[in-house]
Amino acid sequence: MVFPFKLLLGSLTWGDQRAKIFSGGQLLSLSLDKTSGSGFISKKEYLFGRIDMQLKLVAGNSAGTVTSYYLSSQGPTHDEIDFEFLGNLSGDPYIVHTNVFTQGKGNREQQFYLWFDPTRNCHTYSIVWTSQQIIFLVDNTPIRVFKNGESIGVPFPKNQPMKIYSSLWNADDWATRGGLVKADWTKAPFTAYYRGFNVQTCTGSCTSSVRRRRGEARESTERRVGGVVSVNIIHAEAEANQD
């Protein structure tokens, strides 16, 4: 079930009027201009579960922009699970940047090319988080599995409840081609749309879903959609707890 944003939102955290809710609470937009971006935060904290978010990303020349959707706790030793969508020049594929922070430390990035145009329609981006692993999914296709490596001394986020955040912001110092391509402010405002969300606490159904998808994540890296490799890893930091 997809829920309206009035059930999710704690507040529109920044951006003045650049964040808007309309269509009876079913649709939310975030905008970015040269002055400011915008963002929101959930009312509740979550410890394990599945979170689905439907997004339509910034269309056209979105170079320098980042649309983010992530889970995070608070403080200098916070945990965090990130989806970030890196803007591009018109016609270039969007890049999905994923990361996991544990006790304030990240450096677990992996990046992927999307195999479709994420600006034409809403697509579903999901995080399945259990005490054993984190799965990142795009339209229910697993693209990454981050396993619990505590047995070999690698911290894993499992003790701090996290809220859901999202923002649209200027990152043209690094987002597009390593910062070589800057935001074109004549194209502003840049706008991303959120159509709905779903949150499930991790019950038996969540656990069985994780088991079923354990092998699928690796297989999806070879799957082709319309003649294009569906998940193309383009950057990955070393991960001591990954096979």
UniProtKB/TrEMBL annotation:
It comes from the Eukaryota. The keyword Glycoprotein applies. It catalyses: breaks a beta-(1->4) bond in the backbone of a xyloglucan and transfers the xyloglucanyl segment on to O-4 of the non-reducing terminal glucose residue of an acceptor, which can be a xyloglucan or an oligosaccharide of xyloglucan. Keywords: Disulfide bond, Fruit ripening, Glycoprotein, Glycosidase, Glycosyltransferase, Hydrolase, Transferase. The active site is at E80, E84. Its EC number is 2.4.1.207. GO terms for molecular function: hydrolase activity, hydrolyzing O-glycosyl compounds; xyloglucan:xyloglucosyl transferase activity. GO terms for biological process: cell wall biogenesis; cell wall organization; fruit ripening; xyloglucan metabolic process. InterPro entries: Beta-glucanase-like, Beta-glucanase/XTH, ConA-like_dom_sf, GH16_AS, XTH. SUPFAM superfamilies: Concanavalin A-like lectins/glucanases (SSF49899). Residues 1-194 form the GH16 domain. Pfam families: Glyco_hydro_16. Glycans are attached at N88. It is an enzyme of class 2 (transferase). The keyword Protein biosynthesis does not apply. This is xyloglucan:xyloglucosyl transferase. The lineage of its organism: Eukaryota, Viridiplantae, Streptophyta, Embryophyta, Tracheophyta.
